[in-house]
Amino acid sequence: MLYASVEDVKQRIGYLPASNFGFSSEAAFESYIQILIRGASRLIDAECNVEDGEFAENTPDIIRNIAADAVAIFLMKAQKFLQNRENPPSLMLLPEQRDALKRYKTFKFERG
């Protein structure tokens, strides 16, 4: 159950190379991105209080965008951490993303 694609995420981070994130190969980096997308998808399911994979078939654009954005934000924070040794990042949804999911949930599930 992946609500976004590796390509969605790579586009958002400007196609920066794997080496910018501490990876020696693109394949390893793409596998890591898939793991992060899976985590973001679970965060979305939990936020919407739906079963795992609820949006997997014909994923709505808003869900795909939120998942890809959450992963891209995490990766950019991770890159900053690697460069400056600042606080390590965590994968999370931003307040604006949570609000968008609440509106979507209300529209999709409560209105039928």
Structure description:
By secondary structure, this protein is mostly helical. The chain has one domain. The protein has helices spanning 6-12, 26-48, 61-84, 95-110. The model has no long low-confidence stretch (mean pLDDT 87).
Short recap of the structure:
The chain is mostly helical and 112 residues long. It contains four helices and no strands.
Entry keywords:
4 helices; 112 residues; single chain; mainly alpha
Total domain units: 1
User: Treating each run of at least 4 consecutive H or I residues as one helix, how many helices?
Assistant: 4
Q: Would you report the number of β strands? A: 0
Distance between the termini: 23 Å
- Uncertain segments are none
Gross morphology is globular
Q: What value does the Rg take, in angstroms? A: 15 Å
Task: Give the integer mean of the pLDDT values.
Answer: 87
Write the layout of secondary structure elements.
Blueprint lengths: L5 H7 L13 H23 L12 H24 L10 H16 L2
